[in-house]
């Protein structure tokens, strides 16, 4: 898959980047994408919900009345769940919602998500991600030039994040900027468009060449 490298004005630089078909042209596995997204969202769930049982609520432990002969039902103490202020039966307890996916499954899910974006032509490459000074206006203009003003965009960088670029983009609501080592399946699925910096795009080609040489 060959993509033209654009500048921040949305114009072609005359260069292109070849993205490997092993990553961007694979047959997607939708179920693994679903599991990867589910795992990511589950990890965001704190799971710290808690209610008090009858052993934890305040109240006397004295038996309310004798067991037999009153004509009423048998009762223990005021902490009984049937009374107002009593404990809760089978209430929620703190627990983790996370579950395990092995490394191979995660890799296939990531490749599947990228392949989906490639098939719908929602991937672009921009030559640089550096600004001379922090200006949100300049970042907004860049998104407008790339025709992505009203879209959810994931901007993936190959190296360290330029501080001026970060300060310029952090207030743009629909723009998510991350390093290539830290983006995930949820970020890809949640975005309408993916922009790779030229440096990030070349990393895929280098990895493909390395794997071919080792084989």
Observed structural traits:
2 domains; Ribosomal Protein L4, Chain: A; elongated; alpha/beta; 215 residues
Describe the model:
- This protein is of the alpha/beta class and 215 residues long.
- The protein folds into two domains: 2-46 and 102-214, Ribosomal protein L4/L1 (Ribosomal Protein L4, Chain: A, 3-Layer(aba) Sandwich), CATH 3.40.1370; 52-91, no CATH class.
- The chain has helices at residues 21-24, 30-44, 103-119, 136-145, 163-169, 185-190, 198-214, and strands at 2-6, 12-18, 123-126, 153-157, 175-179, 193-197.
- It has a six-stranded mixed β-sheet with strand order 2-1-3-6-4-5, with helices on one face.
- The chain is elongated, with a radius of gyration of 28 Å.
- It starts with a strand and ends with a helix.
Describe how the helices and strands are arranged:
Blueprint lengths: L1 E5 L5 E7 L2 H4 L5 H15 L58 H17 L3 E4 L9 H10 L7 E5 L5 H7 L5 E5 L5 H6 L2 E5 H17 L1
Parallel strand pairs: 1-3, 3-6, 4-5, 4-6
Antiparallel strand pairs: 1-2
Helix pairs in contact: 2-3, 4-5
Condensed summary:
This protein is α/β, with parallel strands linked by helices.
> What is the residue-averaged pLDDT?
90
Shape label: elongated
Quaternary status of these chains?
A: single chain
Task: Kindly report how far apart the N and C termini lie.
Answer: 22 Å
């Amino acid at each position: 898959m060959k993509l033209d490298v654009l500048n921040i004005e949305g114009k072609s630089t005359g260069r292109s980047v070849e993205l490997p078909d092993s990553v961007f042209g694979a047959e997607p596995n939708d179920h693994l994408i679903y599991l990867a997204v589910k795992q990511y969202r589950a990890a965001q769930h704190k799971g710290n919900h808690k209610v008090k049982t009858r052993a934890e609520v305040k109240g006397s432990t004295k038996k309310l009345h004798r067991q037999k002969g009153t004509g009423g039902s048998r009762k223990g103490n005021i902490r009984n769940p049937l009374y107002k202020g009593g404990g809760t039966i089978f209430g929620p307890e703190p627990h983790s919602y996370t579950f395990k996916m092995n490394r191979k499954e995660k890799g296939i899910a990531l490749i599947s998500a990228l392949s989906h974006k490639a098939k719908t032509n929602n991937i672009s490459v921009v030559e640089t991600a550096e600004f001379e000074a922090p200006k949100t206006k300049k970042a907004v203009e860049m998104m407008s030039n790339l025709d992505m003003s009203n879209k959810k965009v994931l901007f993936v960088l190959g190296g360290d994040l330029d501080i001026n670029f970060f300060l310029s983009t952090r207030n743009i609501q629909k723009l998510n900027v991350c390093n290539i080592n830290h983006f995930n399946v949820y970020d890809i699925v949640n975005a309408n468009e993916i922009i790779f910096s030229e440096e990030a795009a070349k990393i895929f080609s280098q990895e493909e060449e390395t794997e071919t040489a080792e084989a």
